Structures are given as structure tokens and as C-alpha cells.
């Protein structure tokens, strides 16, 4: 498996687990989950030492 795919898969698994906990604590489905999920993924990858940037402009 490509190393980048491994990193993203690991982060997605952890985010999925955290999202389940988040919704369980709310006691309902969270309609704003895309925003929450994006913030969680950014934080997770940052904590792992990764840095995401915008698209490369030629």
C-alpha cells in the first residue's frame, strides 16, 4: 500500500472512531459532521506531524 494511503487510512479510522463517540455523546446524528470531520482530520494529521497545504500553482 502506498505510504500516503496508509497515513490517510489510519487518520480516517481514528476520525471514524472519534466521530462515533461524538455522535453518541450528542445522542443524535450530527448534521454538521462534514465540518467537524474536516477539523478532526486536520488536527489528527497535524498531531502526527503532517502538514497539508493548498493546491500547487504551476
**Rg:** 13 Å
How many β strands by DSSP? 0
Structural class: mainly alpha
Average the pLDDT over all residues and give the rounded result.
78
Sheet having the most strands: none
Q: How would the global form be characterised?
A: globular
The span between the termini is 29 Å
Helix content: 55-70%
Q: Tell me the number of helical segments per DSSP (H or I, 4 or more residues long).
A: 2
In terms of per-residue confidence, which ranges show pLDDT below 50 for 5 or more consecutive residues?
none
Number of domains: 1
SSE string, helix = H, strand = E? HH
The amount of beta strand, in percent, is under 5%
SSE inventory with pairings:
Blueprint: H1 3-26, H2 33-47
Task: Briefly summarize what is shown.
It contains 2 helices and no strands.
Care to describe what's here?
The protein is an all-alpha fold. It has one domain. Helices cover 67% and strands 0% of the residues. It has helices spanning 3-26, 33-47.
Amino acid at each position: 500500500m502506498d505510504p500516503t494511503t496508509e497515513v490517510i487510512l489510519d487518520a480516517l479510522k481514528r476520525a471514524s472512531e472519534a466521530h462515533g463517540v461524538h455522535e453518541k455523546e450528542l445522542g443524535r446524528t450530527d448534521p454538521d459532521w462534514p465540518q467537524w470531520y474536516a477539523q478532526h482530520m486536520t488536527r489528527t494529521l497535524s498531531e502526527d506531524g503532517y502538514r497539508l497545504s493548498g493546491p500547487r500553482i504551476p
